Amino acid sequence: MNPSQWIDVVEDKFNYNLDHFVIPDHYQDDVKSILIPHGLIMDRIAKLAQIITSEYDNERITVCCVLKGGHQFFSDLINYMKKALNKQGKTLPMTLDFVRVKSYENDQSTGDVRISWTEKELKELKGKNLLLVEDIIDTGNTMKKLLATLEKYELKSLKVASLLLKKTPLSCGYVPDYVGFAVPDLFVVGYCLDYNDIFRDLDHICAISDVGKEKYSV
Ligand code: 5GP
Prior knowledge:
Layout: E1 7-8, E2 31-36, H1 38-54, E3 61-67, H2 71-81, E4 94-105, E5 108-115, H3 119-123, E6 129-137, H4 141-150, E7 157-166, E8 178-183, E9 188-189, E10 205-208, H5 210-216
Parallel strand pairs: 1-8, 3-4, 3-6, 6-7, 7-8
Antiparallel strand pairs: 2-10, 4-5, 9-10
Helix pairs in contact: 1-2
The structure holds guanosine-5'-monophosphate.
């Protein structure tokens, strides 16, 4: 996928007023604007599912959710992929897998990337077509570390789908195979993206407010 196929979320243009959509009462003061409403997220995922599925042959793929943030995207993407057709015009057999990766505290990367796969689980990936499903690529360091870890395990193919790609000067240059939206350099929450495990129950992707940051910092 090249950048012309992503949706570019420009901060001043995509800045929906909180009053125009339903926000849970408990988050009214904690977000400052809606960047991507839930309906738009779903429509975009329907298209991503078509694009991704159409690039695979008639072979089983292992779709792996990068937890916890990728959970909602993974779940909706799989549902659309079940109905989409592959290169041969057939539905795609999928095995589902999960990996836990953690690198952030508050809105800062700790630099220490922890991956939950055991050596045994990594060896079982040999010969598989793996599609990693991630919520957001920010600097790209987490995904680079994950891909470096997978390098020696002789996978048949390895691709990455990320719902969001942050436009940040701190990017290490890593770009995933599939991107839903390119987003401004803000800390975003909602649609399972969290701030210290808060906001996963918010449907829209929003920019966190200073009040929200302060209230939920650890
Ligand atoms: P990276 O290593 O690319 O800088 O960061 C990747 C991880 O950091 C993501 O998987 C996500 O968990 C977290 N992250 C980075 N930026 C954001 C953000 O704006 N909002 C949220 N909720 N998490 C983020």
